[in-house]
Amino acid sequence: MPDVTMTSRQRVKAAINFQKPDRMPFSEGPWPDTLELWHQQGLPRDVSLDDYFGFDISYMSLDCSPRFEQKIISHDGEWYTYQDRWGYTATKKFGKASSVHFFDHKTTDPAVWQANKHRWSLSKDPAEPARIDTAGYFEHFAAYPTWEQALEKYRKIYANNRYLLFECYGPWESTWRHLGYEEQLVNTALNPDWVREMAQTHVDLLIAVLQRCLDCGMRPDGFYMVDDLAENRGLLISPTSWREIFKPAVKKLGDFLAKNRLDFWMHCCGNAEQVFDDLIECGLRVMQPLQASTGLNVVELRKKYGRRLAFYGNISAPKMAGPLDVLEEEIKSKVVIARDGGYIFHSDHSVPPDVSFERYQWIVKTARKYADKPI
After folding, report:
1. Phi, psi of 211 (to 5 degrees)
2. What digits encode the pLDDT tens for the residues 217-247?
3. Positive or negative CA dihedral for 339, 344, 347, 348?
4. Which of 50, 123, 231, 337 has the fewest CB atoms inside 10 Å of its own CB, making it the most exposed?
């Protein structure tokens, strides 16, 4: 690794461009209950996780929803039910990671879609709340800031010199939120033109929101698209269907990002390798989280994709809580690819609450030892 100390922004940029960073970039996303446990175990509450561990990536979230009313409907013990601005109702544990039961999706048929389609547009009203915030878009109950307030939040985050990502759902994820998961699978097969229209409409709004951010002086380093296309065995739909229905929208987004010199990142659970080459054609630069239990391994992926795609994650979350020798081998065998760039350390999704604060401190120390020094 170079002797010159880099800022986090420089470090991540070097890594995704396959240059040698001064050290391996890091970031992590523990589940909310994990973070609370770590506070109880010694993580200071007055210090951010990013500052404590020296993480290199910050996020701001875009609201590209149709902005249906967001409200809590009921509480039942630790569970609650709420209506979401993305067009569904859900029941889940309050303030904790849990399974989520989605129902009552707003788009019930093409006629309802046409009646509500105007919601997928960016208002020109200067009094309209901003479509960006520091809080995530999932379970976002607080009022969105004004565009001026959002700009001040952006300036504070950008001044930290961490690599800044704006994040939002991609066309697959955003569409099923208002249409319904099973309904989207069925309509992808039976009514592909309609699904393609909904996917493209979302991306058009997403591009408009990104352009508004740029016009207001909010320029991220990259954009992080959250689109869970896959499960353990592969894609949720056929690669052919994805290419015909969703790829044109992703390509349009990728072209916009390239034109504006913004790096294209993606989060996709499961194993979506069947369309990795397609995503690279769309301009994708970084893939995350590379779920290890699906057979994805960054060492093998590096051999296959070379410098065409950088990787972010792939450290098995179950192994993080398992035997120390197994975990050490997991880390040691994978982080070595960081020495030539193209890799950012992260779990293969989110750190679960059975990983103690002490264990995670050991994980960070061990990963840096094997990535930054010759073995």
Report:
1. -65, -40
2. 999 999 999 999 999 999 999 999 999 999 9
3. negative
4. 123
- What residue ranges do the domains of the chain occupy? 8-66+121-372
Rounded Cα–Cα distance for residues 356 and 140 (Å): 28
- Would strands 71-76 and 79-84 be described as parallel, antiparallel, or unpaired? antiparallel
Instruction: Decide if 108 contacts 125 (C-beta within 8 A).
Output: no
Q: Which amino acid is at 103?
A: F
Average pLDDT, whole number, for the chain? 96
Please check whether residue 29 is in contact with residue 351, taking contact to mean a CB–CB distance below 8 angstroms. yes
CB 202 within 8 A of CB 174: yes
Radius of gyration of the chain (CA): 20
pLDDT tens digits for 252-311? 999 999 999 999 999 999 999 999 999 999 999 999 999 999 999 999 999 999 999 999
Give pTM, 2 decimals. Answer: 0.96
Cβ–Cβ contacts within 10 Å for residue 249, how many? Answer: 26
CATH node for 8-66+121-372 = 3.20.20.210
d(CA 144, CA 63) in angstroms, rounded, equals: 9
pLDDT at 325: 97
Distances (CA, A) of 147 to 119, 125, 256: 19, 11, 22
- The CA distance from 208 to 87, in Å, is 20
Three-state helix/strand/coil letters over the chain = CCCCCCCHHHHHHHHHCCCCCCCCCECCCCCHHHHHHHHHCCCCCCCCHHHHHCCCEEEEEECCCCCCCCEEEEEECCEEEEEECCCEEEEEECCCCCCCEEECCCCCCHHHHHHHHHHCCCCCCCCCCCCEECCCCCCCCCCCCCHHHHHHHHHHHHCCCCEEEEEEECHHHHHHHHHCHHHHHHHHHHCHHHHHHHHHHHHHHHHHHHHHHHHCCCCCCEEEEECCCEECCEECCCHHHHHHHCHHHHHHHHHHHHHCCCEEEEEECCCCHHHHHHHHHCCCCEEEECCHHHCCCHHHHHHHHHHHCEEECCECHHHHCCCHHHHHHHHHHHHHHHHHCCEEECECCCCCCCCCHHHHHHHHHHHHHHHHCCC
* Token code pair at residue 39: 């506070």
